[in-house]
Amino acid sequence: MKKLLVIALSAITLTGCSLTQPIPVKGEVVSCADIKTVASEGAVLDCLDGSQGVAADSIVGPALINVWGTWCAPCRQELPHFAHYIAKQGSVPIIGIAVEEKNMAVVRKFVESNGMSWPILYDSDGSTRGKFGMGVPVTWFIDASGKVVHKKYGPFNSLEEIELSVIKYLGVK
Fold this sequence. Notes:
CATH superfamily: Glutaredoxin
Radius of gyration: 18 Å
Strand content: 15-25%
Number of helices: 5
Structural class: alpha/beta
Number of strands: 7
Distance between the termini: 46 Å
CATH topology: Glutaredoxin
Signal peptide: 1-20
Shape: globular
CATH class: Alpha Beta
Helix content: 25-40%
Main location: other
Largest sheet: 7 strands, mixed
Domain Thioredoxin: 33-172
Number of domains: 1
Pfam family, one: AhpC-TSA
Keywords: Cytochrome c-type biogenesis, Disulfide bond, Isomerase, Redox-active center, Signal, Signal-anchor, Transmembrane
Order of helices and strands: HEEEHEHEHEEH
């Protein structure tokens, strides 16, 4: 009887722990065609899928702009949480901006092998450095008018942190 109780408790513990882990998601290069924008004079960033690029300052939301790099350990740490958010049909789109990368091929391969499935813009010449700064990861919360309502420096540590931040700063559930 005691063995049965130990086995049952172990199974419950293992099952419970697995529910807190992000859902693995297959990565894919996604078109930038659905990014909401307004007219802008800003520098246009290339889209990873080869479609028409977008100026970062033309993006309107609600949206999250996540600036990251393949070489950045904290950026890689938060990727599963963003992937889980997207897989759960998160209410606010994520737009990534890859910075300080050797070339688009490196970024494409990284996206596909790391569960990323949201549009990625490619900053080939560092033109966003003046707007976003040099530290990554940084995530900007953009409201419907295109205004930056919050900047999160550092990685998100959970799906719940992303969801609560979206509610808090963008008022979207």
